[in-house]
Design goal:
Blueprint (H helix, E strand, L loop, with lengths): L2 H19 L1 H25 L5 H55 L2 H6 L6 H14 L1 H27 L2 H8 L7 H40 L4 H11 L5 H17 L1 H26 L8 H21 L1 H18 L7 H16 L4 H10 L1
Helix pairs in contact: 2-3, 2-6, 2-8, 8-9, 8-11, 8-13, 9-10, 10-11, 14-15
């Protein structure tokens, strides 16, 4: 290998190592790119009415912040009120769970209880968790401050990317060879279309799931219906895993009241997921890249394992972008043309055979076999 090739390999390995060390910042930048891509659609819509881009960016950011603040102003007071109610009946809930635990110990044979050790430590585990939550109060405050700083960084990056995205896009395309830069721009356009379609469909789905969950829990009389509905809507952002996690809190609250209510909650959430799968997704996700369920589940598990909460939150947009790049750059541009040189070589060989006096029928037979 030449010296320049060794330098190239060293630079590549060093770049991968540095990117891995700052992977959380890279994910924040990717999240800012995704949000800027979505808001850019709003900016372009406003520009059609001859509004300058700077003014359109300001209107878009103010609009998003207004919607967010309005949502928090309407929802947060009710959530706080319901959480206060939860703190009032939390001791009653723990006492009810202790009674359930004692009833299970008396009803289930001793041999079975030895096999199911978790039944005896259920209440103790909940008490330990609550105690640890109080003891780690300052650690929680520190993490909350870190989250706030990260969110501010994310917001500033989004605004900077939104003001003038062209230099950043051109700078990214310059990382590729000159002959491939136009193709890279086409792939980026496809990524933009898919991400915008996915975000629109996901937000609509989250809203629908939250409303249906709130109405259903309110009819069933489950405690904290608004908190559980907001949780169900937010966790809908994480496919496969999120809806399962959103079922746990209302199921436990319903189980404390009555077993039939817990079964009704399971049936409610199952019905909502069926409505989502059979009606909502086919209607609102037409512009989204089709992802296999196993691929989305593995993506959530793998990215959350490597990158933590941000990986869990950004798993699907990461998979969408990776799938488009693999399909366009690897499959279409490389693998689909893999046999091109060998076909040309075979054509040249057959022409040489004809020139040497071999009958055309033999050449045609060889081409038919190939």
């Amino acid at each position: 290998m030449r010296f320049a090739q060794w330098i190239g390999i060293f630079v590549l390995v060093t770049s991968v190592y540095i990117l891995w060390q700052i992977r959380q910042i890279v994910l924040v930048v990717f999240a800012a790119v995704v949000l800027a891509t979505v808001l850019n659609q709003v900016v372009q819509f406003l520009q059609r009415y001859r509004i300058k881009r700077g003014v359109a960016v300001g209107i878009s950011v103010v609009l998003v912040l207004t919607i967010l603040v309005g949502f928090l102003a309407l929802i947060v007071p009710q959530i706080v009120d319901q959480l206060q109610q939860f703190s009032d009946f939390a001791p009653q809930t723990l006492e009810r769970m202790r009674s359930w635990n004692n009833w299970l110990q008396n009803a289930i044979p001793e041999q079975w209880l030895e096999n199911v050790r978790g039944l005896r430590t259920l209440t103790q585990g909940l008490q330990s968790w609550l105690t640890g939550l109080v003891n780690n109060f300052f650690a929680i405050i520190s993490r909350s401050l870190n989250i706030v700083v990260t969110f501010l960084l994310f917001l500033v990056l989004t605004i900077m990317l939104l003001i003038d995205p062209s230099p950043y896009r051109q700078g990214f395309t310059l990382l590729f060879p000159a002959f491939y830069r136009r193709r890279v721009d086409e792939i980026l356009s496809k990524c933009e279309t898919s991400l915008v379609g996915w975000i629109k469909g996901t937000l609509l789905t989250m809203l629908l799931i939250g409303v249906l969950s709130y109405v259903g829990l309110l009819i069933l009389g489950v405690r904290l219906p608004l908190v559980n509905a907001v949780l169900a809507g937010l966790l809908e952002f994480i496919p496969n895993v999120g809806p399962t996690f959103s079922l746990i809190p209302p199921l436990l609250l319903a189980l404390v009241d009555a077993p039939w209510k817990a079964a009704a909650v399971v049936a409610l959430y199952f019905g909502i997921q069926q409505v989502e799968s059979l009606i909502v997704v086919p209607l609102v996700m037409r512009s989204q890249v089709s992802l296999l369920p196993a691929v989305t589940l593995l993506a959530v598990v793998v990215f959350s394992s490597f990158f933590g909460f941000l990986g869990l939150f950004l798993a699907i947009p990461l998979v969408i972008v990776l799938q488009i790049w693999i399909k366009e750059a690897l499959v279409k541009d490389v693998l689909n043309n893999w046999w091109g040189d060998k076909k040309d070589s075979h054509k040249q060989d057959t022409e040489e055979i004809v020139d040497n006096g071999l009958p055309h029928t033999a050449v045609e037979d060889n081409e038919a076999k190939v």
